[in-house]
Each structure stands twice: as structure tokens, then as C-alpha cells.
Design a protein that fits this description.
Elements (H helix, E strand, L loop, with lengths): L36 E7 L6 E3 L5 E7 L7 E9 L4 E3 L11 E2 L10 E10 L11 E5 L12 E2 L12 E9 L5 E9 L1 E6 L2 E2 L16 E7 L7 E10 L1 H4 L16 E9 L5 E5 L5 E4 L2 E5 L3 E5 L8 E2 L1 E2 L7 E3 L5 E7 L3 E4 L5 E17 L6 E7 L1 E2 L5 E2 L9 E5 L6 E3 L6 E9 L10 E8 L5 E5 L2 H16 L1 E2 L1 E2 L12 H14 L3 H14 L31 H13 L2 H21 L34 H22 L3 H22 L11 H9 L5 H17 L11 H10 L3 H8 L8 H5 L31 H10 L1 E3 L6 E4 L9 E8 L2 E9 L3 E8 L4 E6 L8 E5 L2 E8 L1
Parallel strand pairs: 2-8, 14-23, 20-30, 38-42
Antiparallel strand pairs: 1-3, 3-6, 4-5, 4-7, 7-8, 9-22, 10-15, 10-18, 11-14, 11-16, 12-13, 12-15, 16-17, 18-21, 19-20, 24-33, 25-26, 26-31, 26-32, 26-33, 27-30, 27-32, 28-29, 34-39, 35-36, 37-38, 39-40, 40-41, 41-44, 42-43
Helix pairs in contact: 3-5, 3-14, 4-5, 5-6, 6-7, 7-8, 9-10, 9-11, 11-12, 11-14
């Protein structure tokens, strides 16, 4: 490729590419003998997990080395257990992600060490990696010798203090390893010798409790000493028996608060002791007098546990216990007040500057019995008063009663709030900013993405997307963190998942949720709109077959496969995917599924602006939407079958998809590619799902562009249309129009909330009107943040060229007023980065490609038809293209 050299002649299309590196592709051979190193060992996508439930864990690693074009040609795995040793031998394979353990059966509770070495493309071996480990969980129900126990005292049905259960035990020596296996009906806070066992919050998490409970395993070795020890566990109501769900019912899954606790202590001489929950435990209550996810927590520090009584042994099953899959919820960023305000009503208000999900930690001095009330809100009203109308029935208030013995610190235990502002009542003395902190809480997913550009408003938009993701990733993906809802709406999840996966590593998080999807799915294949399916636990039967929401059963597994390349997990969802498509098929007539549902949820109403007349939005026909999703899910199912080697199913569902398309064209489209629903969303879905044949696509895309331009470069889309609007425009050559939409600052637009001071994504395009009056809604819903996927894929240009990023596409689409974009994604193979910059004369681009991958790199020219493509191996590259 001599045209890469900086001195090479300019091409006739005035396109020139330079490399800023001394080495070029022609010099790659100089690096052929560079030493490759194996790093970042993961077991089931986690770093040294304790309590693994997978009997065939999958092992992954990365390659690191100087130079370019590094590839793996072979690997060898070595796994050592307490009584076993397994070697894979030299395996000639480039696979370095999700390599399944294939040794002797793994034993419950046992500790395994593993290493890997690889051979590079020249056949040169690496050194063995540093050892890593995993520890198995309890794989069979009879591995549990512990008994379920509950408080022995009578409880109120709703307003109940948090039970405390305790036990003393003796350790005959300092342990070499101690592992605690624990779960609860409700939530738990476990301590050993007064120290917390974990920094995880809201354990054991929220699952389809009718079918399964997660348990956690913790390394407790450092918390136990030789001699007498004590353990204490406080239980909270949580999702299990707290007030939760759309009708604010208590006791949705049960009335009990129960604990299952098994502590295995191993000594140097090879002996073990086991401390279990049984009839010998005692129970009482303490300072937590009430704790509820919606309503908040009441803590009376004057009350200490007393009058300890016996517990009750329960006969709850253990065959529904599963090892934890996803990362735990933890405390993360803290924020100091940016302002202390007095509202027109005289309310004492603290502004922390960032909307988030979490709680407030504060310090206080006062008299015994002084009572402080902390109320939470996302915004102030038009006049600057504390605003809680959008919380619905959620009280969202924490109450603390002082002991009165010096400085005291409070933060809740078993609740969380969505807020930026708090109202403080009853605080003794001056409210000082140094005494208050807001604490963010969210699932501890590894950060994988970074996006920055030359437009500060877009940078704030990206930050808002991340904060809405974090706020709504508290063990399950939710629609909002503040009001009396906080449910796992399936449509929101599948629409936002591609963006979520750029920002954070979400495979474990979503796979945990997908297991509940599979359990919540009806025997007829019908899918609930919300998972876990709490809405169908009441007398109010919820729908089980809504287009866009039920389709999450198909779309999300396929999306995760594209991002992570994990066929094992794709296969786990296959029957569920097929059942959903068959559910639709059984209700379709002559190839048409005329389903109802929510449609293009919250598509904007026109709001006339001075100097601009909005084109009135018209609703997209519900059967039209249903048919597009019917086709899309069927097509993805056919592709899934192909990826899993189910060729007969692949042919069947591909043929079914053709039938669905033909019915769609006959019912909903004219030969001139005009949709009967002449809306932006109609054309977006028809184009994105592929239901339109290529012969009609260009004309339909033109009609979409005409609708956007007729609305003066404003979008007219809701939840279903918005995620695909800019991607479709870019695909069909309207990138400039996509940028016009992105950089629009009047409503409805992505940047209008940013201009209005938003720090998260709003549920509605006009949650706050231009006159600053409030349109009641959530101010923290990630759905419209799905634009983030386009920012990474098309603006920055990073996307998978094959499932899991083994093949990478780097194809930025510059546009708008942006002069610079710098983005990266930390894939399973390593960091992928694209940094581009426009000047008057040149387009400069830096690219980083990780080892053991290949990339198709597209370098833009001045015009779209001047894009150049090249194939590159791993390394860092820099290019300059003449404009």
C-alpha cells in the first residue's frame, strides 16, 4: 500500500493519507518476534469470582505486546484444584474469549487456580500468565446444611422494624479461608465481629422470586479470629415484602423476613467448621424502625437491640437458589452541595448539582430525640419551591432520630431515592455544606466507553446518558429511580441496550435479567412488559404481548451476542426467542400481526415556538409498528438459528420473514414507498428492521428526510422511533440531517434539556416547558439516551464487524459543527479507539486496534464518495486525509 507514505503523490481525487508513525504496514515484519504477554484473566467475565455457579466456566484473556498485527495462533490452559490438575494441552486456535473449562467436574466450594500461555502468529510462545483463581459456589441443594430462619416475634403487616438476627461461634484457630454463603427473603446487611462482610447493597437482589433467589458468596477470612466470634444480620423488606409495584401493594412475594446463612471455615490442618442459620440464633430489632424502597427509612438511634428471643426455623425450599451472576450495587460518587437555598415557601433546600439514584449521608449534633426529615426531589418548580408531584405515591423521605451523645452520622440502609435536591426539616443548628453529601448507588459495572467531542453540549448529553444509565441500573434495568415505579420495562431495556453496552460492561447484568425474562414468559410464549413480572402478581392482569416490549426476548439476546460474541448465552435464550415469535405467529392472520400496545410511546406533541411553527405529530399506526417488530424478531431468530447451527430453523424463519414482509407491503405501503402512517417513526422502523426491500428503501429514506425537514429539522419520534432515527439517516446518506437533529437546541431535541440544565435524560422531550413550568414526568429515564449508540458507532465510528469485536469496523461520519471526536471502547480483546479532527485543509485520524483482532478502517474524505478503506491488524495508526 505505497499510498500510505507521506511523500507519495496525491491521488486524482485529491485524497492523501499519511502515517505519523515511523513504522508503517510495510515494516510490520520488524515486530514479528516481539514478545507477547498474557494479561487480564477473566472467569465467566469476572475477575477472580467467589461463589461461581457455572459448572463449565468460560475463561478469557488478552494479549499484550509491542508492535503491530499481533495474533494468537494457539493457547494452553492449566487449571489446578485441591485434588486435581487439568491441562488443555496446546490448542491451535485464535480463540481467547469464552474458552470453556473442559476438565474434571468441579466441586462445590472449592478453590481453583489457573494460568494460560499463548503462541503468537510466528509460533513463538509467551510466558505463562500470572495465576488467577475462581472459587465455586454451592452447586446442589444438599450442599446447603443451613436452615431458613425467621424472627420469632410477631410483626406488623406493613410498618415493621428491620429484624436483627445474631449468633456467636467459636473458631479453634485463625482460618486460612472462610467463605460465607448467604441469601434472604428481603434484603440483608451482614456483619462479622462488627465489620461489614461486603460493601454490596440491596443483596441478594431482585429476581423472579417465585422461581429463584440469588445467593452471594464472600471471602470472610480477614473478619474471623481465633476464639469467640459473633455474627449479626439485619434484614430489610426490599422488593420481596416491601411496598412495591404499580399498585403499591406490600408483601408481593411473601410476608416473612428470612435468612439463610452458611459460613465455612477452613483451617491450616485441613479441618473445617461450619456456622449455619438454625434454631440456635436469636432475634430482636434495633434502630431501623421502617425501611421501604419507595417511602424511605426511619432510624431511631436511641433504640438498641434488646429482649433477644428465639428464631423460627422455616421449611422454605433450597432448590430455587442460584449463584449470583451480575455485579453488586455499591456506593460510588459523592457530591457536595452546590447551593443551600430558602424557597419562596420558606423550605430549607440543598442542591447537590447532579440528579442521581442514591441517598444522603449527613453529620449532625443535637439533643436526644431531635428528629430530622430529609425529603428528596429531582427538581424545583417554576417558582423555586420543592417539587415532588412526579414521585406519585412514593414518600421518598428518610427520618433520623438522634441519640444525643455527640456527633452522629446517618445514611439509610434499605432504600434509595432519585434526587438532585433535598428538603431538610428539623435539623438542629446551621445547615453547613460540609456536613451533607449525596451518594450515588448503582450496579458496579466496569466502564468500557469514553466519548468526548468539540461540542460541550454533546459532551454534557453523553454525561447525562451515563448518569441515567447508572441511576436505573440498580440490580435490574428500570425506567426511573424516583417515583413509585422503578420497574424493568422490557421495551426501554432493548432500545437502550446498545448504548448501555458502550458505556459499561453489561453482559452479566443483562444476562441476569434475561434469566428472569425466560422465567416470566408465559407457557404460550407471551412476554410481560415488565420483568420481574410484578404487575401480574396482582388482580390487575397486565398485557403479555406488546410490540417493542415483548420483542426484548429476541432483540436483547441478539444485541448481546453482537457485542460479546457469546454463543453459550445466546443458546440459553433460543427457546425463549422462538416461543415469542411463535406467540406472535399464532395470533397473526394472513401474515399480519395487528397487535396493540403502547405504540411510539411519548412521541412529542407540537409546541409552537416563536418563529417556528411545528408540524403536528400524528400517531404511528399500532398494527404498522407491530408488523415491523414481527418481521424484525423473526429475522433475528433466523439469524440466531444460523449462528447456533440450527439450519432447519434458520430456513423456516427466513421463509416466515418473507411472508411477513409481503403481507406488510400489501397492507401498509404503496408501490411508491409511501407508508399509510406518514410519520417519522413509520419510515424509521420500516427501514431499520429491514422489512422494506432495497428497491423501496432509498425512496422511503427520502420521505423520512422530507418529514424531518418539514418539521424544521426537529424529530417527531417517541421511544420506539428515536433510537434508530439518526442511524437510519446516516445509513441512507443523510448524515448532515442527522447532525442537524443532534445539535438542535429547541424542543423536541436532545440538547434542549441540556440547555435547560438537565443532568440526566428526561422521560419526555418537554419535561420542563420553555417557560420553566413542569410537565409531570420522570427526569431520569434512559430511553432517549439511546442516541449514544449513534455517537459511538457513527460519529466516532466504532462498531463490531463480527460478533464480539474479533473483527472491528472503524468508520467515522464527520458532520455538523463538530471539529473533533475522541472515543474509545474497551472490548474483550482490548481498547479500540478512534480520534478524529477536522481542520480547514485536513482530516486527521488516530486509530488503536487491540491484539488478536483485525479491523476494516474507513478514512473519510471531503465527500462521502471519497472514503478510503483498508484492513489493519493490531496497533496504533495515524492518518491525514486532504480535504
Amino acid at each position: 500500500m505505497p499510498w500510505l507514505f507521506p511523500h507519495h503523490r496525491r491521488y486524482r481525487n485529491s485524497y492523501m493519507v499519511k502515517t505519523a508513525f515511523v513504522s508503517t504496514l510495510l515494516l510490520l515484519s520488524l515486530y514479528a518476534n516481539a514478545q507477547v504477554k498474557v494479561i487480564r484473566l477473566l472467569c465467566d467475565d469476572r475477575v477472580e469470582p467467589v461463589g461461581l455457579g457455572d459448572p463449565h466456566p468460560r475463561l478469557s484473556w488478552r494479549l499484550e505486546g509491542s508492535g503491530q498485527d499481533i495474533l494468537q495462533s494457539a493457547y494452553e490452559l492449566l487449571v489446578s484444584g485441591p485434588h486435581s490438575r487439568w491441562s488443555s494441552g496446546k490448542v491451535r486456535s485464535a480463540q481467547s474469549v469464552h474458552v470453556a473449562y473442559d476438565g474434571e467436574p468441579l466441586a462445590s466450594g472449592q478453590h481453583y487456580s489457573w494460568q494460560v500461555r499463548v503462541w503468537d502468529q510466528t509460533g513463538k510462545p509467551s510466558a505463562w500468565s500470572a495465576p488467577a483463581f475462581w472459587q465455586m459456589g454451592l452447586l446442589r441443594p444438599d450442599d446447603w446444611t443451613a436452615q431458613w430462619i425467621s424472627p420469632g416475634f410477631a410483626e406488623d403487616s406493613v410498618d415493621r422494624p428491620s429484624p436483627i438476627l445474631r449468633r456467636q461461634f467459636f473458631a479453634k484457630a485463625q482460618p486460612v479461608r472462610a467463605t460465607l454463603y448467604i441469601t434472604a427473603h428481603g434484603l440483608y446487611d451482614a456483619r462479622l465481629n462488627g465489620q461489614p462482610v461486603t460493601d454490596a447493597r440491596f443483596t441478594p437482589g431482585y429476581t423472579e422470586y417465585d422461581h429463584r433467589f440469588q445467593y452471594q458468596a464472600y471471602d470472610a477470612t480477614a473478619l474471623i479470629h481465633s476464639g469467640n466470634n459473633n455474627t449479626e444480620v439485619t434484614l430489610g423488606d426490599g422488593w420481596y415484602r416491601g411496598i412495591f409495584g404499580p399498585w403499591n401493594n406490600p408483601n408481593n412475594y411473601g410476608r416473612d423476613a428470612s435468612l439463610l446463612y452458611q459460613l465455612v471455615i477452613a483451617y491450616r490442618n485441613g479441618s473445617t467448621d461450619t456456622v449455619i442459620s438454625d434454631a440456635f440464633w436469636q432475634c430482636s430489632t434495633g434502630s431501623i424502625r421502617y425501611a421501604d424502597i419507595y417511602n424511605g427509612e426511619i432510624d431511631d438511634a436511641r433504640i438498641l437491640p434488646a429482649n433477644w428471643t428465639n428464631v423460627i426455623v422455616q421449611t422454605f425450599p433450597k432448590n430455587n437458589l442460584v449463584a449470583t451472576l451480575a455485579e453488586p450495587v455499591r456506593e460510588h460518587e459523592t457530591f457536595t452541595p452546590v447551593a443551600i437555598l430558602t424557597s419562596p415557601r420558606g423550605e430549607k433546600i440543598i442542591d447537590f448539582g447532579q440528579n442521581l439514584a442514591g441517598w444522603v449521608r449527613f453529620k449532625v449534633r443535637g439533643k436526644s430525640g431531635d428528629t430530622i426529615r430529609i425529603s428528596h426531589a429531582e427538581t424545583l418548580d417554576q417558582d423555586g419551591n420543592f417539587y415532588t408531584a412526579n414521585l406519585r405515591e412514593a414518600r421518598a423521605q428518610d427520618i433520623y432520630v438522634l441519640r444525643g451523645d455527640g456527633e452522629e452520622t446517618f445514611e439509610p440502609h434499605f432504600t434509595f431515592h432519585g434526587f438532585r435536591y433535598i428538603k431538610v426539616e428539623g435539623y438542629p443548628g446551621e445547615i453547613r455544606p460540609e456536613d451533607f453529601r449525596s451518594v450515588s448507588l448503582y450496579s458496579s459495572l466496569p466502564v468500557t466507553g469514553s466519548f468526548h467531542c468539540s461540542d460541550s453540549l454533546i459532551n454534557r448529553l453523553q454525561l447525562n446518558i451515563v448518569w441515567s444509565q447508572q441511576s436505573n441500573f440498580i440490580d435490574i434495568p428500570t425506567d426511573c429511580p424516583q417515583r413509585s415505579e422503578r420497574l424493568g420495562w422490557a421495551g426501554d431495556v432493548q432500545l437502550f441496550a446498545p448504548t448501555a453496552a458502550f458505556n459499561k460492561r453489561v453482559d452479566e447484568f443483562f444476562e441476569k435479567w434475561l434469566e428472569d425474562v425466560r422465567l416470566a414468559q408465559g407457557p404460550d410464549g407471551g412476554m410481560p412488559d415488565v420483568v420481574p413480572d410484578i404487575r401480574n402478581r396482582t388482580i390487575h392482569r397486565a398485557p403479555r404481548g406488546v410490540a417493542g416490549w415483548g420483542d426484548a426476548a429476541v432483540i436483547l439476546p441478539w444485541t448481546l451476542f453482537q457485542i460479546y460474541g457469546d454463543t453459550t448465552r445466546l443458546a440459553a435464550s433460543y427457546n425463549s426467542m422462538r416461543a415469542w415469535v411463535q406467540y406472535i405467529h399464532s395470533r397473526a392472520l394472513n401474515g399480519l400481526w395487528k397487535g396493540g400496545g403502547y405504540g411510539d410511546w411519548l412521541a412529542p406533541d407540537p409546541v409552537p415556538e416563536k418563529g417556528r411553527d411545528s408540524v403536528k405529530a400524528t400517531p404511528t399506526d399500532l398494527p404498522f409498528i407491530s408488523q415491523c417488530y414481527y418481521f424484525y424478531s423473526t429475522t433475528l431468530l433466523a439469524r440466531t438459528a444460523g449462528a447456533l447451527g440450527r439450519s432447519q430453523d434458520s430456513v423456516y424463519y427466513s421463509t416466515l420473514a418473507d411472508t411477513i414482509r409481503n403481507a406488510f407491503l400489501a397492507e401498509y405501503m404503496t408501490p411508491g414507498a409511501r407508508a399509510i402512517s406518514n410519520t417519522q417513526t413509520a419510515y424509521i422502523l420500516a427501514l431499520y428492521t429491514g422489512i422494506l426491500p432495497e428497491s423501496m428503501a432509498a425512496r422511503a429514506a427520502q420521505r423520512l428526510a422530507e418529514l424531518v425537514k418539514a418539521n424544521q429539522d426537529h424529530l417527531g419520534t417517541g421511544f420506539l422511533g428515536t433510537p434508530y432515527l439518526c442511524p437510519v439517516l446516516t445509513k441512507y446518506g443523510y448524515t448532515d440531517l442527522a447532525y442537524a437533529l443532534l445539535q438542535q437546541t429547541t424542543p423536541p431535541s436532545w440538547l434542549y434539556p441540556v440547555k435547560m440544565g438537565a443532568t440526566t435524560i428526561w422521560e419526555k422531550w418537554l419535561s420542563v416547558l420553555p417557560n420553566r413550568s413542569i410537565n409531570v414526568s420522570s427526569f431520569n429515564n434512559y430511553a432517549y439516551g439511546a442516541i449514544g449508540d449513534w455517537l459511538y458507532r457513527d460519529v466516532a465510528g466504532i462498531s463490531p464487524g463480527s460478533p464480539g469485536y474479533r473483527r472491528i469496523i472503524i468508520h467515522p461520519h464527520p458532520g455538523g459543527t463538530l471539529t473533533e471526536v475522541d472515543a474509545s471502547y474497551d472490548s474483550d480483546y482490548g481498547l479500540i479507539r478512534c480520534h478524529w479532527k477536522k481542520t480547514n485543509d485536513n482530516f486527521q485520524m488516530e486509530v488503536e486496534i487491540p491484539a488478536n483482532t483485525r479491523a476494516d478502517v474507513y478514512i473519510p474524505g471531503k465527500d462521502p464518495d471519497k472514503v478510503r478503506k483498508m484492513e489493519l491488524g493490531s496497533g496504533k495508526y495515524s492518518f491525514t486525509a486532504g480535504q
